[in-house]
Amino acid sequence: MVKDRYDYLPNGYQETIEKGPNALRVFRRVSHGIGTREEQLKRLKNELTNADAIVIGAGAGLSTSAGFTYSGERFEKYFSDFAERYGIADMYSGGFMVMRCPPEVLWAYWSRYILINRYQKAPKPVYDDLLKLVRGKNYFVLTTNVDHQFQLAGFDKERLFYTQGDYGLFQCSVPCHDKTYDNRDVVLRMVSDQRDMQVPRELIPHCPVCGKPMMMNLRSDDKFVEDEGWHKAAQRYNAFIEENKGKNIVYLELGVGANTPVIIKYPFWQLTAQNKNAVYACVNLGESYCPDEITDQSVCINADIGKVIKDLVE
Ligand SMILES: [Zn+2]
Predict the structure, then answer these.
(1) CA–CA separation, 55 vs 266, rounded Å?
(2) How far apart are the CA of 53 and the centre of ligand 1, in A?
């Protein structure tokens, strides 16, 4: 929506995801890389040291490795009352379930969720270690994560493109306009002032323009608002890819699952195949692979991301 104003800007997101279907036509068989774990790790370390540019592509697996779990102990700690009354089994499904509840209840749930999954740092220092790995280098981060952990760890904001939004921003649910709003103050108040799983009515967020309910700025359907900050980040990402074409570039993919491969995984495969100086590194516990066609340019490490990053930093 309201995209016209940004038509003059190159849209790194659009250009990136358009590579997706092409990747499927080109790459048919997958490989798990060459060499032992130690050899792969050593090679990746070497490639990162000598790289002209590093593009980090981060998915949900990176935050899982950093300790963001949505069930078990962490869920019990913050949501045991919701579990008891509404039969919710984990944070994720609960987020959908409360959408059917009155807004007082919905925001009691979501304010806690946003507080612990966006405003608080991840339990383990995986993002901090990752920053140590690239600090002072020519890097850029492309991420589908909406938990703000790159910013909280101190990554340069100008080197980040979070394509799917941010829990820390509200937008109009219609949406009637394309601005987003920082929600920190109201989220903190909703958490502290809620009683018996309900926030006071006056804290329920409404659009300042049309008065309709606000929602989180997350890409889940076509109502997602791509605000000015989003478009500028898309442009910077695009420029970074252009500037470093043909150079020794490492596409470091961390924890990208099979759910949304068109945003990070498939474009990384294609960009690697188009540049003989590029390296594709896939670090993922249980899902580490590359297309056959670029095996020689790939490093696949099937292990906990946090542990791999720690090994790379040492
Ligand atoms: Zn509105």
Answers:
(1) 14
(2) 41
